[in-house]
Structure formats: C-alpha cells, structure tokens
Amino acid sequence: MAHSAASAQSPFNPDIHRIGRVLCFAAHPDDIDFGAAGTIAAWTAAGIHVSYCIMTDGDAGGFDPAQRAEIIALRAAEQRRAAELVGVTDIHYLHERDGYLEPTHAVMKGVVKLIREVRPDVVLAMHPERNWNRLQKSHPDHLAVGEAVTRAVYPAVENPFAYPELAEEGLAAYKLPWLWLYAGPEERENHFEDVTDHVDAKLDAIHVHVSQHPDVAAMEAAVRNGMHMSAQRAGFAEGRSAEAFHVVAVNGPGTIAGF
Fold this sequence. Notes:
This protein is α/β, with parallel strands linked by helices.
C-alpha cells in the first residue's frame, strides 16, 4: 500500500489502524478523481473495498451547449470509467441538482442511510471549510458535501433515534471510526499519502472526464504540481507525489459516547 505520513496532529497511524472498507462522497463526477484517486488506487490495490457516492448528477458541468441534453448520462459514464481505472465499481448517486446542493435533512438522511448500509472504516468527503488560497476548490456544492457528511457522521449515523425510519428499515446505528476530508484549506491538512506509484492511474482517471477539461495540458500540469507540493509539505523525498487530507478520529478507544 502507499506510504503514509502524518504530522504530529494526525490521529491516524497506518502501522496501527487498519482500513478494510471506504465510502467516498463528492459533489460532482470528477471531484474524487482530482482529490483522492491516487490514494484510492493504492487502497484498492491493497484489497480495500472502496465505494463512491456522487451527490449531484453534474448537470451544470461541461462547456459545450450541444451537450446539455445528454450531460447527465455523459458524466455518469465518465465517472464509471474513471472509477474502474482505480479499482472502484460501486457507485451511488443522490441525484441532487448541480449547483443547488445544500446540507438539508433530506440530503443528510441519504448520507446516513448509505453509511449505515456500507458500514465503512473510513468516510472520505470534501472539506466543509472554504479554501481562500484556491477558491476553485471550494465550489458551494463541495462545501455542502462537507457540511452534510460531517453533520451526518456525528451524531446522526450513530444515534438510533435520528431518522428513526432508517432503524425501522433495519439500518442500525453505526459508530464510524474515521472521517478523512479532502480539498480543504492547507492549514487543516494533517495527513499525507505517498501516491507516486499511482500518479498515472490518477491522471488517467481525470483524463476520462473529457467533457470538463478545455485545457488538458494545463490541468495535468496543475495536478502534478499540486501532488509534488503536497509531498514536499509531507517531508517526502524529492520527486515524490502525495495527496493531502484532514483526518479526524470520530470513534476510537478514547471516545466518550454521547449524542
């Protein structure tokens, strides 16, 4: 599996904590590929089961007016192919409208439902805090993903009395161990994954989303540079590539129960 490095603030120790199942949330098709596809490729190569949940259909994306009628089907097909390139075949959609996503109770209930179904060791989601250094990372839908997932993770997922109809359907409350957030402010990042061996897979996945990239060369250069910068901040050797996360321990040996 990919080499990990955590700053002194990160609660996750890859030598101690084991991951078997991951559920990833994103606002649009291609968000996960930009934010975490290298780490996901490393996880699936190590036998970890990874699922995706895309909250919107990406219907406001793209640049070609002629594609409007088919953009939802086109982006779903792109996401399916991109996911397969990093070992993921389990993809869910909440079918919210692109550009209109909010952390409503309807959205949070959908998140709680899926987490209780999958029962992952790690929920990976976009960060709820705005990145002022690169505002493009902080599309309002991205922030809404982070807020909805964070609210769902605690307390609703582990509270048997939250959305009681889910428990009545047989979806029991579940204590999630880890929340990993991506695409957030640099100052929040406390954990880095060395994805040097999976850069090509990540870029191949991003390239699949051809409807979204008017300047492919500039996009690839920016992605490569971002991974190199993350590796430098992690203290990895010269020439390595990394993805950065804000890792939060939700439930562990020292967690005090409470709603």
